């Protein structure tokens, strides 16, 4: 969601852009659109850096439309946190969430998280191996190259079984 100018050329505030976004998703739901997606960016020209938070707000304002991240940058995040955030949105939406994940597309978006661009594919692959079993395993642990998690039951589990639809970019 870009921080775009209004009709006068003035830059819309982040608060107003997010309010407009909530109106847009409500209208999309009312007119019967199937899916509403929101991406993740960590630059000054975008408002949304945490799609799960925006989708959670959209979940409580809509009734039918499916809600998806397009895309969550898994190579700059903690796979447990991603699991918990999207499981929570899935519960809030009564099973209308989809999770789109990717590895990141620019140095400027990975650098704030201390991730090297040249490692993004390996980090993403390690995060995916860690993420997927959390959806169905009660006793879960993972020991990989970039992520290491002791035995635990990661909760909450999502509404959709075995997991929400997953898209990879």
Descriptive overview:
With 169 residues, the protein is of the alpha/beta class. The chain is built from 5 helices and 7 strands. The strands form 2 sheets. Strands 1, 2, 3, 4 and 7 form a 5-stranded parallel β-sheet that branches. A two-stranded antiparallel sheet has the order 5-6.
Blueprint (SSEs and pairs):
Blueprint: H1 14-30, E1 35-38, H2 51-61, E2 66-69, E3 72-73, H3 79-92, E4 97-102, H4 107-110, H5 120-134, E5 140-143, E6 148-152, E7 166-168
Parallel strand pairs: 1-2, 2-4, 3-4, 4-7
Antiparallel strand pairs: 5-6
Helix pairs in contact: 1-2, 2-3, 3-5
Quick tags:
alpha/beta; 5-stranded parallel β-sheet; two-stranded antiparallel ribbon; 7 strands; 17% strand; flat
Mean pLDDT: 89
The main pleated sheet reads as: 5 strands, parallel
The DSSP helix count reads 5
- H/E element order: HEHEEHEHHEEE
> Termini, distance in Å?
18 Å
Structural class designation = alpha/beta
Q: How many whole angstroms does the radius of gyration measure?
A: 17 Å
Contiguous low-pLDDT stretches (5 residues minimum) are: none
Strand content: 15-25%
Helix content: 25-40%
């Amino acid at each position: 969601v870009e921080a775009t100018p209004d009709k006068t050329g003035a830059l819309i505030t982040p608060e107003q852009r997010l309010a407009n976004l909530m109106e847009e998703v409500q209208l999309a739901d009312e007119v019967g659109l199937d899916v509403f997606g929101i991406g993740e960016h960590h630059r000054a020209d975008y408002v949304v850096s945490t799609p799960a938070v925006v989708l959670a707000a959209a979940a409580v304002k809509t009734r039918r439309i499916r809600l998806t991240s397009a895309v969550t940058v898994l190579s700059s995040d903690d796979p447990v946190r991603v699991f918990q955030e999207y499981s929570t949105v899935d519960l809030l939406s009564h099973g209308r969430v989809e999770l789109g994940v990717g590895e990141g597309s620019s140095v400027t978006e990975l650098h704030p998280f201390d991730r090297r661009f040249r490692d993004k594919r390996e980090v993403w692959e390690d995060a995916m191996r860690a993420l997927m079993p959390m959806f169905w395993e009660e006793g879960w642990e993972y020991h990989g190259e970039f992520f290491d998690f002791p035995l635990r039951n990661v909760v909450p589990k999502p509404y959709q079984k075995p997991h929400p639809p997953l898209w990879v970019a």
